[in-house]
Prior knowledge:
Layout: H1 3-14, H2 21-52, H3 59-82, H4 89-117, H5 123-143, H6 149-168, H7 172-221, H8 231-240, E1 251-259, H9 261-268, H10 270-288, E2 292-298, E3 301-306, H11 312-327, E4 330-332, E5 335-337, E6 340-348, H12 358-371, E7 377-379, H13 382-399, H14 403-406, E8 407-416, E9 421-433, E10 437-439, H15 441-450, H16 454-470, E11 477-481, H17 484-488, H18 492-502, E12 510-514, H19 516-519, H20 523-535, E13 539-545, H21 552-557, E14 562-565, H22 567-570, H23 577-592, E15 596-600, H24 605-613, E16 618-620, H25 630-640, H26 645-649
Parallel strand pairs: 6-7, 9-11, 11-12, 12-13, 13-14, 14-15, 15-16
Antiparallel strand pairs: 1-3, 1-6, 2-3, 4-5, 8-9, 8-16, 9-10
Helix pairs in contact: 2-3, 2-4, 2-5, 3-4, 4-5, 4-6, 5-6, 5-7, 6-7, 9-10, 10-11, 13-15, 18-20
The structure holds ligand C2E and magnesium ion (2 copies).
The site of ligand C2E has 24 residues, from strand 9, helix 15 and strand 13.
Amino acid sequence: MTASRGADILDRILLLPVNDRELAANCLETGIERTPIYFAASMLCFVFLSYSYHDYAPFWLSTVFPIVLFSFAGLRIAQWLKAPLPETQNDINARLRRFAVESILLIGLLSLWPLMLVQYATPFLQMLTASNFAMVTLVCVYCMMHMRAAIVISLAVTPAAIFYLVFGVPFALGVGFNGIFLSTLICTGYMVHAYAKDFDVLIAQRRALQDLSHENFRIANIDSLTGLANRRRFFADLAERENITPSEDGYVIAIIDLDGFKPINDIYGHACGDRALAVTADRLEALCKDIGLAYRLGGDEFAIILDKPGDDEALMHLAQRTIDTISAPFNAGGNQLSIGASIGFARYPHACAILGKLYESADYALYRAKRMGRRCAVIFNKEHEAAMRNTGLLEYHLKSADIAREFVLVYQPMIDYRSGAVVAFEALARWTNPVLGPVNPADFIPAAERIGMIDGLTEHFLSIALDALASWPPHVRLSFNLSAYDICADNRAEKLIDLVHQRGIDLSRIEFELTETAVMHNFRAACANMEALRKAGARLSLDDFGTGYSSLSHLNRLPLDKLKIDRSFVCEIDTKDKSYKIVQSLSLLARELEIDCVAEGVENEHQAAILTAVGCHVMQGYYFSRPLARDAAEAFLQHHAGTDMQSAAS
Ligand code: C2E
Ligand code: MG
Ligand code: MG
C-alpha cells in the first residue's frame, strides 16, 4: 500500500475535509485553539486522580506515568501551537492528518491510564475514576467537535465505557452512573456528527459570504464600462491620504475631460461613445502604470492621483503626454475617430491646503483649461483660489437677487448697412447687484446655469423682451440669446413657445441665438428643441461663429437661418489679413448655404465698408450703437428707420 493510499484511507476514516483547503485550514485552526482547554481539563482531573490513588496504586502508575504522559502530550501541543499555519493545500492536509492522528493517540493514552488504575481502586475510587474519565472524554469530544475525528474518538472510548459497565463498578450506583455516561456518550456522538456537518456548512457559508463581499467591493469600486477604478474609489483613495504625510511635492490630482466626446456619442451612437471611453481608459491606464492610478469619475471625466508628482514643469509635460496619448486616432465601428482632452491639476497642500477641496480646485482648473480652448491643461494656483471665492460670492448674491429690480435688458440694433434700416434688436441682459455692482453677463449667465436659476431668468428676460418687441414696428425682429440649458433641456422649446404665444406675438418676429458650445452639451436634445422652435415659426441664429467648435458639419446638420460672425474676427478685419480672409470665407459660406449673415462687433466705418465689400450687409456694433435701454432703443428706431447708413451710424 502506497503512502498516499494510506493517507487516503485515513482521511476517509477520520472524515477529514482534505479536498477543501479553507475547511481543512479552519478545522486545524479551531483544533489548535481548543486543544489547550482540553489539556487543562485533563490535567486537573489527572492531578486529582493521581492524588486519590497515591495510597493504592504503585508509585510509577499513580505519579511517574501521568508525569511522563503529560510531558510528552504538552510538548506535542506546544509544537502544534507554535508552528505557523501552512499555506499550501498539501501542507494543510498533512498537518490536519497528523493533528487528528496525534490527538486520537493522545486521547487513547490518556484514557489508558484510568483503565490501568481502576484495578487498584476501592468501589468509591472506581466511581470517581469513571466520572473523571467521563468528564475528560466529554471535554475532549467538545474540543474536537469541529473535526469528524471526534466521532471516531467517541466510538473508540465507548468500549472502555462498556468495560466499566461490565467489570469495573460492581455496585448499583456505578452501573447507573456508567449507564448515564454511556447514553451521554452516544448522544454526544450524535451531536458531534450534527455539529461537524453544521461546521462544514458554516465555513462554506462564511466563504460564500466572503466571496460575495469581495465581489461586491470590487463591483462597487470599479467602473463597469472601462474597468478603471470609479468615482467612489477615487474619493476613498483621496480620503485615505488625509492620514499620510505627502511627499515634498505633495499629492496632485488631475481631472481629465474629453473634448469632442459628446458629438461622437450624438453622431456615431452610444456604442462608438462607449468604445471611445474604453480606448481612453486603456490609454490612461497604460500611461499611469508607474506614476499613479487612473479613475473614471463618470461620463467623459477621468482622473489620476499622483503621489510623486514632481514640479509644475513635470506636470505640464505629463499633461502634454496625456493629451497626445488620448488624442491619437482610434477605430470605432469602422470609423476612424479622435477625441481631445483638457486637464485641470490641483496640488495638495501647496496650492490647495484642504484635501477635501482638492477635487473642487482641480475641477476649477479644468474649467479654466476648457475656457482656454481645446487640449489645454491648467494647474490650480492662488489666483484661481481667489477667483473661485469670487465665483462663490457671485453665486451667493445671484441666489438672493431681486430679479425684477436688479436685472434689466438692453437692446443693441442690427443694421442693414445698405439701407440703414434697423432689422432687429439683440436683447442683452444686465445685472447690477447692490453689493457687487454691475456684473458681466458672461459671468452671471454660466453662474445661473450652475446653480439652476437659468430657466427662471430666461423666462423673465423673454417676457420683458417680448413687451419691448410688441412696441416695435412689425418688420423689426427680436434677437434673443439662449443659454446651453435653454437649448439642451428636454422640451424647453415648448415652454418658450408658450411664453411667446401667451403674448399673442408671431414667432416669426423672433430670432433665437445659440452657440455651438451650448448645442454640444446635448446635441440630440438641442436638435429637438431647435426643430420645435423652427416649426413654430421662429428663426435660429448661430452666435459667435468662428470660435469654439465651429464645425462645418454642424452648419449642415443644424436647422439654421443665420450665422453671426464673431467679433474677434470683425474687430481685426481692417488690420489683419487672416481675419479679413476668414470673414470673407464665412460670408461666402453663408451665401452658399443660403442663410443670412451678420457681423457683430463693428466699431468703425472702415470695418463696415470692408464687410459690405465681402457681401455681409447686416451689422451690429458700437459703430452703430451701444446696447440701449428700452426707451432709447425706441428713440433710435424713430431716428433711424429707413435712413441711410451714415445717419444710422451717427
Ligand atoms: P453675444 O450674444 O455675442 O453678445 C454680444 C456681446 O458683444 C455683448 O456683450 C455686446 O455688448 C458686445 N458688443 C456688441 N457690439 C460690440 C462692439 O462693437 N465691440 C465690443 N467690444 N463689444 C460689442 P455682453 O452684453 O457683455 O454679452 C456677453 C455675452 O453674454 C453675450 O454674447 C451672450 O452670449 C451673453 N448674454 C448676454 N445677455 C444674455 C441673455 O439675456 N441670455 C443669455 N443666455 N446670454 C446672454
Ligand atoms: Mg448673441
Ligand atoms: Mg456673439
